[in-house]
Amino acid sequence: MSTTAQQETGLIAATAQHVAEADAAIATLHGPTQGIAVHDPASGQLIAHVPDSTPEQAVAAARRADAAGTSWAEQSPRHRAQVLHNWYALLIEHGERIAKLISREMGKPLAEARGEVKYGTDFVRWYAEEAVRPGGNFQPAPDGGADILTRRAPIGLAVLITPWNFPLAMATRKIAPALAAGCPVLIKPATATPLTTYYAVQLAIEAGVPEDLVQVVSTSDSAAFSTAVLSDPRVRKVSFTGSTPVGRTLLELASKNVLRSSMELGGNAPLLVFDDADFERAIEGTIAAKLRNGGQSCIGANRIYVQSGIADEFAAELARRFARIQVGAGLGEGTELGALIDSRAVAQMQGFTDDALEKGAQLLAGGHGYPGAGHFYAPTVLDHVDPAAQVSGQEIFGPIAAIRRFNTEDEVLGWANDTEFGLAGYVFSQDLDRALNVADRLQTGIVGINQGVPSNAAAPFGGVKQSGLGREGASEGLEEYQSIRFYNISRRTTH
Ligand code: NAD
User: Residues with catalytic annotation?
Assistant: First the structure.
């Protein structure tokens, strides 16, 4: 963005030095001069190309990964752990570059990209630690005639498909447990943000991951990719993070060869603020749960329900804070809200706002985009949102806070659970009994209690209902890449 455009719109422009450092990271990838074009969402500028692989090339990559998998599975857990520790160290060493790269290709503010580097590398460290604890069990059969020994083996070739919103963390959350368990990997990053995955995997190889073991395949035809790759008999596992409709398609394809499937799908998180909440914590938690990643997060607060006793004050304060937020290029100094991923997302935000206003909502902040080539939308607060408004039923995936008032616990729980999604929910209350009882009754896999950012590498992230299958992070995340087998050892009873 030019300085004049910045002055006209109030948007913060990118810092040339940060852009140069991000581009230096991109240059190390030696990408092709044509293929899939990657653009900076803050400026629309073309920043790189990555290969546009055919389905045949993807299957060939799957074969290479699988061939490298046998010796990896035979390595000791300690060896695999050490390689992951080495990878973690390299990611940390390159952390500042990676943060700038994330910001450049995805648009999030540099401070948040640094946060993603911490979150994303935490998975590598966690699974370096978990690799030496593959688990297993031993128990005598109840009739005494046998000993039952349970082992956990690597499941085999894992196909990993990731979205654009957390280019590092979504990749490491899958690659690290797969490698820790002893599996080879084929990863397909989103076309909008493939560069961070290529960069992170380059470092994995430098860290000692065998060259063919982790294959990155970018393609503009993801449907052809998944049809070809998921029907290859070598593939034993598919792990997907993305929207629920694509997840359903992948589950259908996975059914052909009965693949183990992990699905981290869409959300429509309810956020409940009770009259007895700590007001400041509730405001800060709501801002974090709503605006983290520009609202482009599967656990982002989608429906904000505030109890009537504090609703006026809460809505007014949220609007005041939203209006002060600095919008601009992720690589600009002081940017708090970056660009959305593309122009479609901006048009969708405007459509959501217009629809909510038509259905009686009140606009308290924002409600507009910005002129120019970047994909920006102002932090927006809508109050008195009707349940029939699109923002109440659909995943917003942008910086719009949609508020509705409630009176009783039962009423708000009825609204909160009235959705096919069940990924995350939030409760703000100073009453411990109430907070825990409400959390128990929310039909979600994740609950943030008096806080807006519940994710942690040590926590089993995942949803219920149509938000997904399986868990990522924690020890449960390792089990997603293991198959359980048992040996029945016959015992001759001597008594
Ligand atoms: P998306 O479903 O459009 O795409 C996700 C990935 O799937 C991309 O790599 C895309 O290229 C690929 N893809 C699309 N069609 C495919 C097909 N037929 N076969 C194989 N791959 C295919 O989602 P998105 O817009 O990139 O991401 C946003 C969505 O992801 C939101 O719904 C969000 O809630 C969800 N999400 C979920 C989590 C979670 O952990 N539950 C985390 C982040 C994002």
Answer: 264, 298
